[in-house]
Design goal:
The protein is 63% helix and 6% strand. α1 packs parallel to α19, α2 packs across α3 and α15 packs across α16. The relative contact order is 0.10. The chain has 540 residues and is mainly alpha-helical. The protein folds into three domains: 211 residues, no CATH class; 84 residues; 105 residues, no CATH class. A hairpin with a 2-residue loop joins β1 and β2.
């Protein structure tokens, strides 16, 4: 049943499409930014290797058998790379399209239960979140999994409201694909989100039907290529790893990955993951609890709460694990914003005004800090200044009201996202020596059959070089010169044993682990490592 409470629309249709279009435009910049070390570049290298090996069912990483992530990302990215070449664009494109598809799916799910203004807000909050900015840049298996979970929950919502068995089959298909993207969590999250809603709304009778027998068959059919490959490569251990150890083993301690982060680790992560609307996120939780019996649906609340609790029990935690809860949080935030705009609660109004204004100010100042770390072109400075003027003008024209606060929040975030995608990330990736070395080698037309590496495991070098670059040995000099990329220790070793010529030195830093010393131009040099491209001549 859709929430039909009367209220004013939050924004006009044209404003909604303008903000969404601007977000898509800014997001597109990320397609051309070099792939980041470590995880994303590893997945890119493996995707290229998968198609070069002509063995689509068995995953390898630099020639070694691989048992960790499921294959969907590698299949899709590999196909894209096979068609478009080993570029940043080719690797990122499939995940990018699924991510933006999930914005549409979230909108469609929300409109099942709520009016169009809340549906539009949920889509904008999701697309204009720090989470969405990050996972459409640093492509991991999470991007695909989260998108497919949203698609699955949308179709489950359609089934529960319209009783269309085709929607149930579609949801099952999306769940299977989510499992192909990142394992059983692709099944667990939709179940945790929708299951309590079925119980609380007494909708279990919808599942008492003969067609239910097709659900395990659909799951098995879609998962079967991966299961066959796992069994061929790893035997029963591969199947056990996928269905248990990879996901649930992180809770039981059976998985070897452990960092023993606190049970409260994700509390501070969710605070920044839902920026710029953290305040409304916290308020939304209070709204749900206060109005528990009046909720139109419980899917968004439990889709946030139960996966959050389950992930908090894991022995191994990383910030991006929490991203799967953000689409559900976006619905809650949209409801909170909608209620705030259309109702008067004077104490919260005052708090919301001042805290949101403080956040907006911080978002507008953030690019200045980026410019301090990485000086920009005059065009970038001019664009930033125009953005500031546009935001202040919108604030004035909307008479500093509640809608102005929300609109300016979106505007401040999008301005910051533009600076990040068009300037900060490109400047930052200049310090990723693994990819920069590969670009230089391509520009200099160095023959690939003369290219080697010595102690270089950074996958960006392998990916942008066109495949697995072999290790350098003495017999590599049998018939020709050798061009070798190596690290500082390797460089010292090579020059002591061979006649070498240093072609270029590259600064290298793990850009996904930023530090203040690196961001400070005065201390950056002390934090970067060096990679060396040397030409080695055959000994006489």
């Amino acid at each position: 049943m859709q929430d039909s409470s009367s209220s004013l629309p939050t924004f006009s249709t044209s404003t909604f499409y303008y903000l969404l279009g601007l977000s898509v435009f800014i997001s597109c910049f990320g397609l051309f930014i070099p792939i980041m070390e470590v995880d994303a570049s590893q997945y890119a290298s493996m995707s290229l290797e998968l198609w070069q090996s002509h063995s689509l069912l068995q995953l390898t990483d630099l020639g070694e058998a691989y048992l960790d992530k499921p294959p969907l990302l590698f299949w899709l990215a590999g196909l894209s790379i096979h068609i478009l070449g080993n570029s940043s664009f080719a690797f990122k494109l499939p995940s990018f399209l699924f991510a933006w598809g999930s914005v549409y799916a979230l909108y469609r799910f929300t409109i099942i239960y709520y009016q169009i203004s809340i549906a539009r807000l949920s889509a904008l909050v999701y697309a204009c979140s720090v989470t969405f900015l990050l996972f459409t840049n640093d492509i991991r298996t999470d991007t695909l999994m989260i998108a497919l979970v949203v698609f699955a929950v949308w179709q489950l919502g359609e089934f529960l409201q319209e009783n269309k068995v085709f929607s149930l089959f579609l949801a099952t298909g999306f769940i299977a694909l989510a499992m192909l993207a990142k394992g059983p969590i692709g099944l667990v999250v939709p179940c945790l989100a929708v299951g309590p809603n079925i119980l609380l709304k007494r909708q279990w009778k919808s599942f008492i039907r003969w067609e239910i027998i097709f659900i395990p068959l659909i799951l098995l059919l879609i998962l079967s290529p991966m299961l066959i490959g796992l069994h061929q490569q790893w035997g029963m251990h591969g199947l056990s790893f996928f269905f248990w150890e990879q996901s649930f083993g992180r809770i039981t301690g059976e998985n070897v990955w452990e960092n023993e982060a606190s049970y409260f680790y994700f509390l501070h992560n969710i605070v920044w993951a839902v920026l710029p609307f953290t305040l409304f996120f916290l308020n939304s939780l209070v709204q749900v609890l206060v109005n528990w019996r009046k909720q139109v649906e419980y899917i968004s609340f439990f889709g946030l709460l139960l996966p959050f609790l389950a992930l908090s029990l894991s022995h191994y935690k990383l910030p991006h694990y929490i991203y799967v809860t953000v689409p559900f949080a976006s619905i809650l935030i949209a409801k909170s914003i909608h209620t705030w705009i259309n109702e008067t609660h004077k104490p919260f109004d005052l708090v919301a005004y001042w805290l949101q204004l403080t956040l907006i100010t911080s978002l507008l100042i953030a690019p200045i800090l980026i410019f301090f770390a990485f000086p920009a072109s005059m065009l970038t400075y001019f664009t930033y200044l125009l953005g500031i003027i546009a935001i202040l003008s919108a604030f004035y024209l909307l008479q500093f009201g509640k809608k102005a606060i929300i609109l300016v929040s979106f505007g401040a975030f999008l301005l910051g996202a533009f600076i990040v995608n068009s300037h900060a990330y490109p400047a930052l990736l200049k310090y990723q020596g693994s990819s920069e070395a590969a670009f230089y080698i391509k520009d200099q037309n160095i023959p690939q059959d003369q290219l080697y590496q010595h102690d270089i495991w950074w996958r960006g070098f392998h990916y942008y070089s066109g495949g697995n670059v072999p290790a350098f040995y003495k017999d590599s000099l049998a018939n020709h010169n050798a061009y070798v990329l190596t690290n500082e220790d390797g460089y010292s070793s090579l020059i002591s044993m061979h006649q070498t010529e240093l072609l270029k030195r590259f600064d290298h830093f793990n850009v996904t682990r930023l530090s203040l010393d690196f961001l400070n131009p005065k201390t950056r040099k002390s934090k970067v490592q060096s990679l060396y491209l040397v030409k080695i001549y055959p000994s006489d």
